[in-house]
Amino acid sequence: MPRLLAAFLTCVAAVLLAAGAAFGIVAALDATPEQRNVPLVTFPEPPTGDTSRTAGSGAG
Prior knowledge:
The protein is mostly helical. Helix content is 50%, strand content 0%. It is built from 1 helix and no strands. The chain has one helix at 2-31. The longest helix is centred in the first third of the chain and has 30 residues, at 2-31. The radius of gyration is 30 Å and the shape is rod-shaped. Residues 38-60 are annotated as: Disordered. Residues 1-24 form the signal peptide. This is SPW_0924 family protein. Keywords: Signal. It comes from Streptomyces flavochromogenes.
């Protein structure tokens, strides 16, 4: 009987530890500030004007 009680208490402790860790992780993620959405790579703006000369029709 003591082995069964020890196994049951071990399972209860494991469940409590896992639940506490899960709640702690969620709380830590909620505490972090939002990051700005800044792209790492930027490309120059295409030149404005008539683009029909530079774009090919694709038919050939």
